[in-house]
Amino acid sequence: MFFLPSPLPAQEELPVMEMEENLSREGSIPVRIVGGRLVAAVELSTVHSRIPVNLFIDYESPSGLQLHDSAAKALRTEDEFGQTIPITIHFPDFDITVDRREKGPEDEYGEFTRLHSEELNEDALVGSIGSRILSKYRVTFDLHEGRMELALPGGEEADGEEAAADDEEPGDEKLKVGITVTDGVVWLPIQLASGRIHAMAVSTTSYDSLIDREWCDIQGFPAGEIDPLKLGELNLAKCVAFRPQEVIYTDPPESIGVLGLNLLKHLHLTIDPSTKTAVCFISSPPIFPVADREYFEAEASGDADRLEAWLEKYPKERLSAEGAEKLLNDRLVEKATPGQIESAIRRLRVTWPDDMISTKALDLVKELLKTGYPEQAVLAGELGIEGGRTDRYPDSVHQLHATLGELFLGQDENKRAWRHLLSAAFGVPDDGRVNLNLGRFYEKEKRYNRALSRYVQAVTKVETGEQALEGLARVQRLMGDTTPLSVDTIAPLIAGKTYNYAAATRYRPTPEEETNRVALVEFFTNANYKKPGKEEGAIGGALGNEGVMTYFPREKVAMLTYHLLNPQLPPDSLSNKFAEETARFYQASLAMQLVNGNRLFPGEGRPEDAEKIFLEGRKLIRPSLAEKSRYKLELTGSVRDGDLTGSLKVTDLSPTDGSPTAPTIQIVLAERRVLYPSLSKVIIQNMVARAALTEQMKGIEFKPSDGQMVIPFSRSLEEIVLENTGYLKSRAGGAQLFAAKMDPRQLTIVAYVRDGASKKILQAIQIDPTVPEEPAAE
Predict the structure, then answer these.
(1) 693-711 pLDDT, tens per residue?
(2) Is 138 exposed, middle or buried (0-12, 13-18, 19+ CB in 10 A)?
(3) What is the pLDDT of residue 738?
(4) Which of 324, 347, 358, 399 counts the highest number of beta carbons within 10 A?
């Protein structure tokens, strides 16, 4: 299974507790080198769940068990109170249990899984095991046989020498050296020709064995060709080509490098921290990698022509992809000729795996476009399309077509654009960007009906909704339709492409419900709330809310929806300060619905939960309608010249009945329907609260005179939009600011009386302000 990156941020990194009580078993761990990293296929479990995963073996990393958030969620590593739950790592021969996971580099895990999914047997790489676990054991690396051995210190083979003996072949020369351990990093002594002893760290996070570049330059060997580098009597310089590179480990002072996987895979190496010794012998005789040495020499020269000559000689060696990427970068930086740049791109193409040609090309195209090389991006894209049929990620070739189509459209190469976009549309017919650009193409060609159709498909997608709206408005005018575009004209066009729910019947009051009472339903949500990998989240609550709205007339039930920001979710651009303050007042959580301020029903679920949620809401609302209200509300409002003005008259029908706490009154401006595509797949948002029309976020105190109180209000619509836009800019980076705009034709006003002590809504009313008819658009 794959664990995709979650939109929710991980828990704060916590220290890993000591593990002595869990170190009761030992055994073998099957390992493989994949993509230059050491990987173990294991199972992880908690009391709740067990999952198969892959983990890096990061022998020198100062960490315990690092995990991606998605794996932690699948395992439920925290209880409902935020307390951590122990996690068990299951190896074939034994288990290790840790008290909690740590946060790891999630982007790295995701990218590694994407590039090496087949080698990982389709189980995601979700974390790593580091030295906080491994340093407790005597570790034997036997990578030639595909395993590591973990043994408890102090056993019968505590010195490690006998541990190696069983695997020793006749004639093997075994050596034993002392080790140094600093901060979990194991250092082996390395002797130079001068007899001076330096130190190199044992590393499983680097494939190459590294030697400090600055030290090499001082010694006069810029390509790292220092010889000998002896571990005991074993000259490591004859086994691998050491790569000159900055070495991050600087303690102890005599450290000069790192022994990586390219060397460890040829050694049988046992490290025993308890005795401070290491025992090793060659388990797989190495063949010196001449191509590696020549690459490091070409790289050290800084000469792009020499690097290209190396690629000519070694087009498909281990370092060829890296060399081709470096060559292309060098050619672009030096502003080489088009022919030289094309040659570099073609050499890079040769290095791509046969089942990832389109995927690799798509990555390159994006990078070239980002850095301002559109012509080179076209060549890379066309080379990548050739491998579309065999790519392990079929969508890659469609996205290549989409990217090239958009590029050609911007260059007015309309026919080439159309061919690529149409190819993309066959593969990803619902893609917002593809449909948007096809709409633009057909608009340029004056084929307006087809343009309209494509824009309608694009308008329902988060990433293209705003641009598609603009396209629809243009095409509508070009077709001679002077009706101003609105959500009401768009809704019929997208019918069938979005979720919706309407109650099967309509409200018929019982005799007991024939009162003056108007209920209020308040929905707290975030339009982008969607559980990863599931059709579940805000969509269920929104559809249930639609059910309530279609069942009850607004003369009996007024409704408001408050869109809230959440740091764990992408910005909801319908959020505003008033919604935030209202949620704080109620102490409301995300995705909940309140009836009259004190009764709760669900605000989240799956689309198929819509009827169940609606019925729960109806069950709470109907009894409240039988409660006669002591308050009568009369509300007026009108929009003129960009200002909303009106008044609310509140009459206490029982002025002699005292109340210990004066109620409060609030007047709210909302929009009945807003077109706002969201990740939850709610496209048209209903009854979106935009602002308070009183001077106080929590409302104003009811202070009647002769049982009545009149509250006038006046707000500039432009001022409200500016306030909400400013809120989004300050609180929600990346928000789509177009969503803060309001359509006067969709405005509605809701007023209510709230009990000052219990927060219960005592009476409500909703009206639409009068709006002057707009002249037909020219």
Answers:
(1) 998 888 999 999 999 999 9
(2) buried
(3) 87
(4) 358
- Residues in the chain, how many? 778
- Assess whether pLDDT exceeds 90 at residue 523: yes
Is the pTM higher than 0.85? The answer reads no
Tally of domains in the chain? 4
Strands 519-525 and 592-595 come out as antiparallel
94 Cβ contact list (under 8 Å, min separation 6): 25, 26, 27, 150
Ordered alpha helix ranges (H), 495-609: 538-551, 577-586
For residue 124, being part of any structural domain is answered with yes
Whether residue 559 is found in the same domain as residue 693: yes
Is residue 35 predicted with pLDDT exceeding 50?
yes
Clarify whether residues 484 and 527 are in a common domain.
no
The answer to whether residue 146 sits within a structural domain is no
Ranges 21-30, 134-143, 285-294, 722-731: which has the least confidence: 21-30
- Please enumerate, as own/partner, the contacts of 706-709 that have beta carbons within 8 Å and a separation of 24 or more: 706/655, 707/651, 707/652, 707/653, 707/655, 708/649, 708/650, 708/651, 708/652, 709/649, 709/650, 709/665
**Helices and strands: H and E segment counts in the chain:** 22, 34
Cα of first residue to Cα of last residue in the chain, in angstroms, is 56
CATH number, domain containing residue 49:
2.40.70
Non-local CB neighbours of 114 within 8 Å, separated by 6+ positions: 359, 393
- pLDDT, residue 275, reads 95
- φ, ψ for residue 508, nearest 5 deg: -130, 115
Three-state DSSP at 752 gives strand
Q: How far apart are CA 380 and CA 411, in angstroms?
A: 17
| Distance, CA of 599 to CA of 389 (rounded, Å) | 56
At 16 the pLDDT is 40
Among all chains, which residue has been given the structure tokens 């006749």?
A: 170
Regarding whether 761 and 699 lie in a shared domain, the answer is yes
Instruction: Mark whether 545 and 634 lie in a shared domain.
Output: yes
φ, ψ of residue 317 in degrees (nearest 5)? -85, 175
Instruction: Quote the pLDDT of residue 188.
Output: 97
Write out pLDDT tens, residues 76-90: 999 878 899 999 999
| Structural domain range at position 479 | 304-494
Average pLDDT, the chain: 91
Which residue has better confidence, 10 or 747?
747
In the three-class reduction of DSSP (H, G, I as helix; E, B as strand; rest coil), residue 154 is classed as coil
Q: What is the CATH number of the domain that holds 440?
A: 1.25.40.10
| pLDDT tens track for 262-319 | 999 999 999 999 999 999 999 999 999 999 999 999 999 999 999 999 999 999 999 9
Closest by CA to 56, choosing from 140, 4, 126, is: 126
Q: What CATH number is associated with residue 601?
A: 2.60.40.10
Residues 6+ apart with CB under 8 A from 608: none
Q: Percent of the chain beyond pLDDT 70?
A: 93
Enumerate the β-bridge partners of residue 150: 27, 139
- Other CB atoms within 10 A of residue 715 CB: 18
Same domain for 177 and 79?
no
Q: Are residues 576 and 699 in the same domain?
A: yes
Question: Which pLDDT value is given to residue 533?
Answer: 73
Both 350 and 205 in one domain: the answer is no
Round to whole Å and give the CA distance between 442 and 478: 12
pLDDT: which is higher, 498 or 155? 498
pLDDT digits (tens, 9 = 90+) for 160-195: 444 444 444 434 579 999 999 999 999 999 999 999
On the question of pLDDT at 156 being above 70, the answer is no
DSSP 512: G
Residue 26 lies in a domain: yes
The 3-state secondary structure of 104-153 reads CCHHHHHHHHHHCCCCCCCCCEEEEECHHHHCCCEEEEEHHHCEEEEECC
Domain boundary among 237, 257, 288: 288
435 in Cβ contact with 472 (< 8 Å): no
515 and 578 in a common domain = yes
